[in-house]
């Protein structure tokens, strides 16, 4: 049935969101014959989702509270464009009961659950009580109304450490801390309250026992307005950082049919208990003994919904729109089946080597070379909210895209994920792409030894600096030589920089440094010099570290190159990234990424870089709090200032014993990356 002829006619859908999810909804709306309307802030005037939509309406300044969280502006945009429905995406207003009520009052269909269901699950403490009454198992904890500091501390002591502090109105990892011991409780409580107030305008907390080796397994549920409800199986979302998911997969490894059915039926019970309609996700902690506990219900579409789509063959956004139009669910429980295995990797603009600090900048390149990696569009999907040439803003969540892959089984899907990550070409903005590769290729992940502390437990290997061998430096040198050759085509022979000499063998020196230390003058990073020589079109002879390797490079499709060293031929994806002080040569395959800073001898910057990162803003953001008084003596490591960017807090600590002479910004001020935040004097 056409949605225009449904019980609740839908013809135009406004997407009250931005980025990847807005583009995702636009694609399904277009396929169903619906007109799409985007909304945008001043920071997003040229954004990808604005370009993709049939219409777009400005709704306010860059700050989310004045645009994407502005209920009146969103409703006005829907009225102006004649939208018959509003899809909230995830985040922003997606779980705001007052927004749903405003849609109802305006006569606009909300693509999601009723306000009463959102309110029931939005208050995490009240939700726990209702779930307990419905027979859904709960983790031991405190969900009470008394929010006095002493009461919360006493409850944490009673439950036993470690405990998890969570914002009662929260979600998405905001306002959440693990507290390992009682001495750390008060500082964690204050930090959680600040984040919760900023994200949800609510400071109430709940406390749960923190299970040390649980898995995060969630169940996708769907209910319609005709009393029917189904579960579309489960997803494992255990691999997280800062309580935000990084890698997700479906189905969850190690599940048997009995456990799957028990969790699925418990999830549907939870949804029915609150009169749910639409797409929802019930999140559980799965213990090593097979017991599971209700955590929370997300009353919206999840970021990781594509892995469920991959294994079921269903379009969940289409299901949402049909249910919002008053139509029944398109499938019964016995008509749903699992087909194969799927993974999703979230690509963030952030620096894993700098405690996952958010990153901003200009996306010079952004694309996925499927042909070069030998992959097909049937097994790989890239849900993106950006294109090459876009700006990554400080104002919103740092997720750029989601890479989703499918295989006949987990091993095949994981192999596809690794190849697809290697084929993902992103430059201009620091991302977690290489970190995702290390995660996906980690032996413990391959064996599905999963817990919510996976990254923490394996941090030594995941964050270890790779030891590069002579072949890595020689391969990068061949890439540099090829770049010099191409750069020299336009000039005269006397302007060439590719080693050409009249009536003599070509000779050129390539100086390379491990890019992770390229700008760290204090550590004096070792420079490996490769002396390359050749006669005419013969292979290069590469001299380094007392060895000589014979090699040549051959371009292949896309950004691929075939590099042969002493008869050993390997395919790589190769590119050049622009860095602040030069260029980085990047080579990647399905197993690793090599990044080497190219210290070009024709353009070496000999200036000394003397910026102390602890005293300057490591990112664009907002000052949240000043934690000490100027002149107050402090020890090295003492927290001095809290910043917030892309919805996450970052604390700047004292670089040495000493004192802050003056803060240069106040709480609430916006700062740019590199701004000097304070004047600090070290103790003698």
UniProtKB/TrEMBL annotation:
<dbReference type="GO" id="GO:0046872">
    <property type="term" value="F:metal ion binding"/>
</dbReference>
<dbReference type="Pfam" id="PF02785">
    <property type="entry name" value="Biotin_carb_C"/>
</dbReference>
<dbReference type="InterPro" id="IPR011053">
    <property type="entry name" value="Single_hybrid_motif"/>
</dbReference>
<dbReference type="InterPro" id="IPR005481">
    <property type="entry name" value="BC-like_N"/>
</dbReference>
<dbReference type="InterPro" id="IPR011764">
    <property type="entry name" value="Biotin_carboxylation_dom"/>
</dbReference>
<feature type="domain" description="Lipoyl-binding">
    <location>
        <begin position="608"/>
        <end position="681"/>
    </location>
</feature>
<keyword id="KW-0092">Biotin</keyword>
<feature type="domain" description="ATP-grasp">
    <location>
        <begin position="128"/>
        <end position="325"/>
    </location>
</feature>
<dbReference type="InterPro" id="IPR011761">
    <property type="entry name" value="ATP-grasp"/>
</dbReference>
<dbReference type="InterPro" id="IPR016185">
    <property type="entry name" value="PreATP-grasp_dom_sf"/>
</dbReference>
<dbReference type="GO" id="GO:0005524">
    <property type="term" value="F:ATP binding"/>
</dbReference>
<dbReference type="InterPro" id="IPR001882">
    <property type="entry name" value="Biotin_BS"/>
</dbReference>
<comment type="subunit">
    <text>Acetyl-CoA carboxylase is a heterohexamer of biotin carboxyl carrier protein, biotin carboxylase and the two subunits of carboxyl transferase in a 2:2 complex.</text>
</comment>
<feature type="domain" description="Biotin carboxylation">
    <location>
        <begin position="9"/>
        <end position="460"/>
    </location>
</feature>
<dbReference type="InterPro" id="IPR050856">
    <property type="entry name" value="Biotin_carboxylase_complex"/>
</dbReference>
<protein>
    <recommendedName>
        <fullName>Biotin carboxylase</fullName>
    </recommendedName>
</protein>
<dbReference type="InterPro" id="IPR000089">
    <property type="entry name" value="Biotin_lipoyl"/>
</dbReference>
<comment type="pathway">
    <text>Lipid metabolism; malonyl-CoA biosynthesis; malonyl-CoA from acetyl-CoA: step 1/1.</text>
</comment>
<dbReference type="InterPro" id="IPR005479">
    <property type="entry name" value="CPAse_ATP-bd"/>
</dbReference>
<dbReference type="Pfam" id="PF21139">
    <property type="entry name" value="BT_MCC_alpha"/>
</dbReference>
<keyword id="KW-0067">ATP-binding</keyword>
<dbReference type="InterPro" id="IPR005482">
    <property type="entry name" value="Biotin_COase_C"/>
</dbReference>
<dbReference type="InterPro" id="IPR011054">
    <property type="entry name" value="Rudment_hybrid_motif"/>
</dbReference>
<keyword id="KW-0547">Nucleotide-binding</keyword>
<dbReference type="InterPro" id="IPR048429">
    <property type="entry name" value="MCC_alpha_BT"/>
</dbReference>
<dbReference type="Pfam" id="PF00289">
    <property type="entry name" value="Biotin_carb_N"/>
</dbReference>
<keyword id="KW-0809">Transit peptide</keyword>
<dbReference type="Pfam" id="PF00364">
    <property type="entry name" value="Biotin_lipoyl"/>
</dbReference>
<comment type="function">
    <text>This protein is a component of the acetyl coenzyme A carboxylase complex; first, biotin carboxylase catalyzes the carboxylation of the carrier protein and then the transcarboxylase transfers the carboxyl group to form malonyl-CoA.</text>
</comment>
<dbReference type="Pfam" id="PF02786">
    <property type="entry name" value="CPSase_L_D2"/>
</dbReference>
<dbReference type="GO" id="GO:0004075">
    <property type="term" value="F:biotin carboxylase activity"/>
</dbReference>
<keyword id="KW-0436">Ligase</keyword>
